[in-house]
Specification:
This protein starts with 7 loop residues before the first helix and ends in a 12-residue tail after the last helix. Helix 11 (about 310-340) packs antiparallel against helix 14 (about 405-430) and helix 13 packs antiparallel against helix 14. The chain has a two-stranded antiparallel ribbon with strand order 1-2. The radius of gyration is 26 Å and the shape is globular. It is about 75% helix and about 0% strand. Among the domains are: about 15-205, Up-down Bundle (Growth Hormone, Chain: A); about 225-300; about 470-535, no CATH class. It has helices at about 10-65, 70-100, 100-120, 125-155, 155-185, 190-195, 200-205, 225-240, 245, 270-295, 310-340, 345-365, 375-395, 405-430, 435-480, 485-500, 505-510, 520-550, and strands spanning about 255-260, 260. The protein is mostly helical and about 575 residues long.
């Protein structure tokens, strides 16, 4: 036999050397892939937030093009949030069965299909189906998977920074969506504004190439009945709130006919019927969940997280705050144009300081992530600053205001919102173990969307209804003529629709057709009515914000550590 010229010890040394060299070469490559994937996940959340943030900015031309109303668009936003929330448990179950890569890429494909169909919608029903159902289902894994993967990628301080960057991406997506969407919609068409976000999908597919395996491959049973009941309960209730401005809270402002037959008995609005039906479904849902738990079967709310007080408290505070701040932003987009004579893009620039202040605070919190102040204190600090800003905004809003009058107050509110947003999610996720993080994000993020939809529906309805009724009453008082209730209500309903859909020139033409006796006082009537209605909504937001800060006393003092 031929004797080897290299002894075994030398062979092991050479092999070990090459293993070390390979490790040195591969490690930076893996770090680069992880960083690229993290960037792609941030872009994903940016894209989804852009998709949602673009709708308020393009609402007037969208409603006009589809010959519909703002109430239906608000309803679509509500249903989008509810579809995302309702599909979250199923999305997580599918991710465990088939892997996050397949579900994530399938979500991107479905998101692109839904967006293209929405941009080509010939009618509001088609738009709602495409925007709400298709993109709503697609958005669920696109929102939950980035948080789950970031949790796998990083630990400790790096994980906190990653979560802050995800939050920052969502804020920036909504901000850019409102700016770019409004500009494109009014310069070209709202149908062009929607598809531009799809240019990000190839970039996301290129960057996101790491999908860490799940520790277990469980097939969790799904409570389909509970999911349907909760969806119907929340959906009907919030849809009723969204349509209140369109159909009236109790007495019907307009008839609702199906196949030529009126479906509203005794002149009752569809709103209380929807809300009552939703509450009945929620009652049946609560009974169903109790029965499921008693018999040991799958229950939608049987997860440990929803039985954990610290998580639920964080969820309630975050959802309430989301409703308040979204409602404030939505109302500013409704209030500023008629009072200051601005279009949607100029209005977005006027409201921009609020968003920029929030973004700057979030970036600063990434730098000072190890700040020794407890997270709960940072949340309370943020809410306190917001309350000061809201008081300031109430004083700034007046008939003599201009586009710079609100600037300091909006900056203060944005700073407070930035402090709050930077920590509330971290507090909620700190109550979950690493294995529960995907479930936590699947509950937390969709419910923030529900809060946003609720804020738009309720606060937006209050503002537009109050302003319209006060303008009509002011005109009637100036004419010094008796007007029957039916005529007054018809005028209010028409003005509500005009406020939300007419351009600046069309509104001027509408008011120019009023009698000459009204013209000298008309500008003052409009400004006074708008300011009064806006201040009422600010009082509601302020009161709810104070309630929110009281609820924070039930949040955990420190981030809980769970294995």
């Amino acid at each position: 036999m031929e004797r080897s010229l290299v002894n075994p010890d030398e062979t092991d040394t050479i092999r070990g050397y090459f293993v070390d060299v390979a490790a040195v070469i591969v490690a930076p490559q893996k770090a680069l892939e992880k960083r690229n994937s993290a960037i792609g996940l941030c872009i994903t959340l940016f894209m989804v937030s852009f998709h949602i943030g673009i709708v308020p900015a393009i609402m007037p031309p969208l409603v006009r093009s589809l010959n519909s109303s703002v109430g239906y668009v608000q309803g679509a936003l509500v249903l989008l949030s509810l579809v995302t929330a309702a599909f979250a448990p199923t999305s997580e179950n599918l991710s465990r069965r088939f892997g996050r890569q397949k579900i994530f890429r399938g979500g991107l494909l479905l998101f692109a299909i839904g967006t293209l169909l929405a941009s080509m919608s010939p009618a509001m029903g088609f738009f709602v189906a495409s925007y709400t159902l298709i993109t709503g289902i697609a958005a669920t894994p696109l929102v939950s998977i980035p948080w789950a993967l970031m949790d796998r990628f990083y630990e400790d301080k790096a994980e906190k920074i990653a979560f802050l960057l995800l939050t920052l991406s969502m804020v920036m997506g909504g901000l850019i969506g409102s700016l770019i969407g409004g500009l494109i919609a009014f310069e070209y068409s709202w149908r062009v504004a929607f598809p531009i976000e799809l240019a990000l999908i190839p970039v996301i597919l290129k960057l996101v190439n790491i999908y860490p395996p799940e520790p277990t491959a469980e097939q969790t049973p799904i409570d389909w009945v509970g999911g349907c009941l909760s969806f119907l309960g929340l959906g009907l209730t919030l849809l009723g709130l969204s349509l209140a401005g369109e159909f009236g809270w109790w007495a019907a402002k307009k008839d609702l006919a199906f196949l030529g037959v009126s479906t509203l008995p005794f002149g009752i609005s569809i709103v209380p019927i929807l809300i009552a039906s939703g509450l009945v479904c929620l009652g049946i849902f609560a009974f169903w969940q109790r029965q499921q738990k008693r018999t040991g079967r799958a229950a939608l709310v049987s997860a440990g997280l929803l039985n954990r007080r610290a998580f639920v408290n964080s969820l309630v505070v975050a959802t309430l705050h989301s409703a308040l701040m979204t409602g404030l932003s939505f109302n500013l987009f409704q209030f500023v144009p008629p009072v200051l004579g601005l279009n949607s893009f100029q209005t977005a620039l006027t409201v921009l300081p609020y968003n920029l202040a929030m973004v700057i605070v979030l970036i600063a919190m990434v730098r000072f992530i190890n700040l020794q102040l407890p997270p709960r204190r940072i949340v309370q600090l943020g809410l306190s600053i917001e309350i000061l800003g809201l008081f300031w905004l109430m004083r700034a809003i007046a008939p003599t205001m201009n586009r710079f009058t609100m600037l300091p107050a909006l900056i203060v509110i944005g700073i407070g919102s930035g402090f709050f947003t930077s920590q509330i999610g971290a507090i909620a996720y700190s109550t979950a173990s690493r294995r529960e993080k995907p479930e936590a994000t699947g509950i937390f993020n969709p419910l923030q969307k529900v809060g946003q939809a609720l804020g738009r529906g309720v606060l937006g309805t209050v503002l537009i209804s109050l302003a319209s009724s006060q303008v009509v009453d002011g005109v009637i008082a100036e004419l010094d003529q008796a007007v029957d209730t039916t005529t007054r209500q018809a005028a209010i309903t028409y003005l509500q629709r005009a406020i939300q859909t007419f351009t600046k020139d069309e509104m001027q033409d509408l008011f120019a057709r009023l009698p000459e006796a009204v013209q000298p006082s008309l500008a003052m009537i409009i400004e006074t009515s708008s300011v009064s209605a806006m201040k009422v909504t600010l009082i509601l937001i302020l009161a709810a914000n104070i309630a929110c800060i009281l609820l924070t006393t039930r949040l955990p003092r420190l981030r809980l550590k769970r294995s």
